[in-house]
Write a structure and sequence with these properties.
Layout lengths: L1 H32 L10 H9 L11 H4 L5 E10 L3 H15 L2 E10 L4 E11 L3 H10 L3 E11 L1 H27 L3 H33 E11 L10 H25 L1 H26 L1
Parallel strand pairs: 1-5
Antiparallel strand pairs: 1-4, 2-3, 3-5
Protein name: DUF4349 domain-containing protein
Pfam family, one: DUF4349
Keywords: Membrane, Transmembrane, Transmembrane helix
Length: about 290
């Protein structure tokens, strides 16, 4: 009986030992098969090599938000016309602008003595979608248009290029930020900061250009100039009434000029009067001496 008991204990010990050896071999095998850790540190030299090779500035995969851009159109123009009532014309323009969401950006008024006319110059900005409606209203309210020029520019390609430039530089900025987080040398950090400063300057410049294009696309520009001649100074024909009215006006101007010319010659007139009085007095005395 004791012999069977000892044999059973011995058999259990052997099984436990074999199982322990198998687990150790499995753990060792797993450790050996595990890949070695990859070094995470990258120097600025690696980034410079990427940039020199053109990888850093390589365009990214097509971005739907950039390639699928709606058509971008800039509308500009100028119009010039004559009106009999410039104040009313200006008021109509301002009222129409308010209704269509536009505004008056610049206004100038000039009076020309040579051509006898008063001229107004307005520079207006109006939403592009309402540009044609405003222009139609303006032309329909004028009797005579001297000139009208409308320019349309398609800047879709330029718009896409600028947006792509911004996107590429932002991706490049992220790469350098990742390198800055892993850099351990001060020289590498300074070099990365210089690169980042240059990239951010490029992004700001491109963003400003994009904002300007967006503003030009959203709001159209129109230069408006209108003028009026002064009543009474415009040649309305060669009829008798016009000539008679002109003669009366010119005669009155001659009388006025003569009157002011005489006033300007008052010293000469006074000297002449005194001279005549002295001669008259001398003649009287001479006559009295002869008589006596």
């Amino acid at each position: 009986m004791k012999t069977y008991f000892f044999l059973s204990i011995s058999f259990l010990l052997v099984l436990t030992s074999c199982k322990h050896d198998t687990e150790q071999k499995a753990r060792i095998q797993d450790v050996v098969l595990s890949p070695a850790p990859v070094a995470e540190e990258k120097s600025i030299a690696a980034a410079d090599q990427l940039e020199d090779a053109g990888t850093a500035n390589k365009p990214p995969a097509p971005n739907p938000s950039i390639t699928n851009t709606a058509k971008k159109i800039i509308k500009e123009g100028d119009i010039r016309f004559e009106t009999g009532d410039p104040k009313a014309a200006r008021q109509n323009i301002v009222s129409s602008l308010k209704k269509l969401g536009g505004y008056l950006a610049e206004e100038n008024e000039t009076n020309s003595g040579e051509t006898n006319q008063k001229e107004y110059s307005l520079k207006i900005r109006i939403p592009s979608k309402n540009f044609d409606a405003f222009l139609s209203t303006l032309t329909s309210s004028t009797d005579h248009i001297d000139s009208k020029n409308i320019h349309i520019r398609d800047v879709t390609t330029q718009f896409i290029d600028v947006r792509a430039e911004i996107s590429n530089n932002k991706q490049l900025e992220q790469r350098y930020l990742q390198l800055a987080a892993k850099a351990t040398k001060m020289t590498d950090l300074l070099a990365i900061e210089d690169k980042l400063a240059s990239i951010r300057t490029t992004i700001d410049s491109a963003q400003g250009q994009l904002n300007y294009l967006s503003s030009q696309v959203s709001y159209s520009s129109l230069d408006i100039s209108f003028y009026t001649r002064h009543p009474g100074e415009v040649n309305t024909g060669n009829g008798f009434a016009y000539k008679f009215k002109t003669a009366l006006g010119e005669g009155w101007e001659v009388v006025q000029n003569l009157f002011f010319a005489l006033i300007a010659l008052w010293p000469l007139m006074m000297g002449t009067i005194i001279f005549l009085l002295l001669i008259r007095r001398w003649k009287r005395r001479r006559k009295a001496n002869i008589t006596s």
